[in-house]
C-alpha cells in the first residue's frame, strides 16, 4: 500500500482507501454460521472463535491509514445499514443491492 501511495504521489495523485466488509462482519445470517462453526471447532479444540473481534481488521486498517496520512473511508462503520440484503446468502460476495450501496457511497464521497 505504501509503495502504491508513493507511486501515486509522484504523479500528483492522492491515495484513498475504502473498506468493504465481508458479510461475516456485518450480517446476522453469517454470524449464525460463525456460531455453528464455533460449535464444530470447539469439538476439535483447534480453533478459538469465541472471542473473535469482528471489527479488528477494520481498526487495523484505519490505524494504518491514519499513521501513514491516507484518507480512509469505512463501510464497516455503516454496518447497521448492511447485512443479508446486500450479500448473496451462500457466498461472501455483494449482490446487486450491495453493489448499488457501495456505488452510492463512493458517489457521495466524490461529489
What does this structure look like?
By secondary structure, this protein is mainly alpha-helical. It contains 5 helices and 2 strands, in the order αβαααβα. It has helices spanning 2-9, 23-26, 28-44, 56-67, 96-110, and strands spanning 16-19, 71-74. Strands 1-2 form a two-stranded parallel ribbon. It is globular.
Keywords for this entry:
5 helices, mainly alpha, two-stranded parallel ribbon, 7% strand, 111 residues
Distance between the termini: 25 Å
The total count of strands amounts to 2
Range of helix content: 40-55%
Q: Quick check: average pLDDT?
A: 80
Overall geometric form: globular
Order of helices and strands: HEHHHEH
Strand order of the largest sheet: 1-2
The main pleated sheet reads as: 2 strands, parallel
Proportion of beta-strand residues: 5-15%
What is the overall number of helices?
Answer: 5
Specify Rg, calculated over alpha carbons. 17 Å
Unreliable stretches covering 5 or more consecutive residues: none
Give the structure's gist in a few sentences:
This protein has 111 residues and is mainly alpha-helical. The chain contains five helices and two strands. It is 50% helix and 7% strand.
Secondary-structure topology with pairs:
Blueprint: H1 2-9, E1 16-19, H2 23-26, H3 28-44, H4 56-67, E2 71-74, H5 96-110
Parallel strand pairs: 1-2
